[in-house]
TrEMBL record:
2-oxoglutarate binds at residues 105-107, 190-196. It comes from the Bacteria. InterPro entries: Alkb, AlkB-like, AlkB-like_sf, Oxoglu/Fe-dep_dioxygenase_dom. Its cofactor is Fe(2+). GO terms for molecular function: broad specificity oxidative DNA demethylase activity; ferrous iron binding; oxidative RNA demethylase activity. It is an enzyme of class 1 (oxidoreductase). Gene3D superfamilies: Alpha-ketoglutarate-dependent dioxygenase AlkB-like. One of its GO terms (biological process) is oxidative RNA demethylation. Fe cation binds at residues 116, 118, 172. This is Alpha-ketoglutarate-dependent dioxygenase AlkB. The lineage of its organism: Bacteria, Pseudomonadati, Pseudomonadota, Alphaproteobacteria, Rhodobacterales.
Length: 199
């Protein structure tokens, strides 16, 4: 990694522009089959980030809460995770397993993601791998419990982040994105992919 924040490994510039464009092309096909949606929080307010997934499981949220589901809210199974994305997992995860979910987050305008833990997966010994595409996003890493000091880093298009070991359960979020900082996405915005083992 080129940077480590509280055990979170950041591989800056891992993906060159052609690799980013290939992944984006694959993501576009996924979004046609599994349209983006704004998940409803249990409080009844939609999240500012739009989401969809690929893989055996996708992440959904509705009045009954957050959970992994084998189907999109439209009732269909999720598209497969493309090899362009699986290749990244193989390179950096150090895991013997295959990812079962590729969550796709789209940040447009003032979308952000508040500080949270990822703990809906059954196996915390497996890492989470994240891929940033498009506009820069200000990523914040905290602690194993809510509150306390935090560290931040701007994630650029092509950066890959690995959360494994003790870092797997740290609080983290995206405070904001920098509009116009990348020309990758038509219409601007930031896409983040997270690869996870769920079961
Ligand atoms: C640290 N996504 O989807 S990616 C998420 O950029 C999520 O969309 C953010 O947090 C985004 O849950 C941040 C980096 C990331 C992802 C998962 C983690 C950092 C993590 C899990 C544990 C610790
Ligand atoms: Fe997260």
């Amino acid at each position: 990694p080129t940077a480590v924040l509280r055990g979170v490994q950041v591989w800056q510039g891992l993906l060159d522009r052609p690799a980013q464009e290939k992944i984006l092309q694959d993501i576009r096909a996924i979004v046609v089959a599994a349209p983006l949606f704004s998940p409803m929080t249990p409080y009844g307010k939609p999240m500012s980030v739009q989401m969809t997934s690929a893989g055996r499981f996708g992440w959904v949220s509705d009045r009954s809460g957050y959970r992994y589901s084998e189907t999109h809210p439209n009732g269909k199974v999720w598209p497969a995770i493309p090899s362009s994305v699986l290749n990244i997992w193989e390179k950096v995860s150090g895991s013997d397993r295959v990812p079962e979910c590729c969550l796709i987050n789209l940040y447009r305008d003032a979308a952000r993601m508040g500080m949270h833990q990822d703990r809906d997966e059954a196996e915390f010994r497996e890492p989470v791998v994240s891929v940033s595409l498009g506009d820069e996003g200000l990523f914040r890493v905290g602690n194993l419990t809510r509150g306390g000091k935090t560290e931040s880093i701007w994630l650029n298009s092509g950066d890959v982040v690995v959360m494994g070991g003790d870092a797997r359960l740290v609080y983290h979020g995206i405070d904001k994105t920098r509009a116009g900082s990348s020309s990758l996405l038509n219409g601007g915005g930031r896409i983040n992919l997270t690869l996870r083992v769920v079961t």
